Amino acid sequence: MDNSLQLQTYIQQARNAGLSDSTIKTELLKMGWEENLINECLRIQSIKPAVQNSFNKDSNSAHPHKTRNGVLWILSPFIILITVSILQFVEHIFNINVAVFNIIALLAGIAGLILLFVGPLIGIIKLSKR
Q1: Strand, coil or helix: 88
Q2: Residue 35 near residue 29 (C-beta atoms within 8 A)
Q3: Is 70 within 8 Å of 124 (Cβ atoms)?
Q4: φ, ψ (nearest 5 deg) of residue 34
Q5: Phi, psi of 32 (to 5 degrees)
Q6: Helix 35-59 vs helix 3-16: angle between axes, to the nearest 10 degrees?
Q7: Closest CA to 113 of 76, 88, 72
Q8: Is there a contact between 83 and 108 (Cβ–Cβ < 8 Å)?
Q9: Nearest CA among 77, 71, 75, 69 for reference residue 115
Q10: What phi, psi does 63 have (nearest 5°)?
């Protein structure tokens, strides 16, 4: 085992046992460890918990992406249907009569109607799994 890894393990165990850094350093100096290596390992061990805590905090938070996905599933049919309505309104106002435009609006309308029933169910399932 590498000396610095061995020292870091000792420091972590000593901290877990409730010893202060100054006590740990004093003990390690008595055991013959170099002060520079002790200081470096203490510094590294001080950084590790902060990084782990920030990672755990982020990974255990309220899962904002899951919440966002659930809400989007619930809102998606309404967004699609409103968009289709706006497209139809624009088509009517500007007297646009293009077959492709009508086909896209029809397909989007059908997708919106399907999502009107399926979207909220999927959204509720996703929100309940968090």
Answers
A1: helix
A2: yes
A3: yes
A4: -75, 140
A5: 100, 10
A6: 60
A7: 76
A8: yes
A9: 77
A10: 50, 70
- Whole-angstrom Cα distance, residue 94 to residue 97? 9
Rounded to whole angstroms, the Cα distance separating 31 from 37 reads: 13
CA pair distance 92, 94, nearest whole angstrom = 6
User: Is 7 exposed, middle or buried, given 0-12, 13-18 or 19+ CB atoms closer than 10 A?
Assistant: buried
Q: What kind and span of H or E run contains 24?
A: helix 21-30
Could you report the per-residue pLDDT of 67-116, keeping only the tens digit for each? 677 788 888 888 888 888 888 888 888 888 788 878 888 888 888 888 88
Q: Which two tokens stand for residue 36?
A: 């520079």
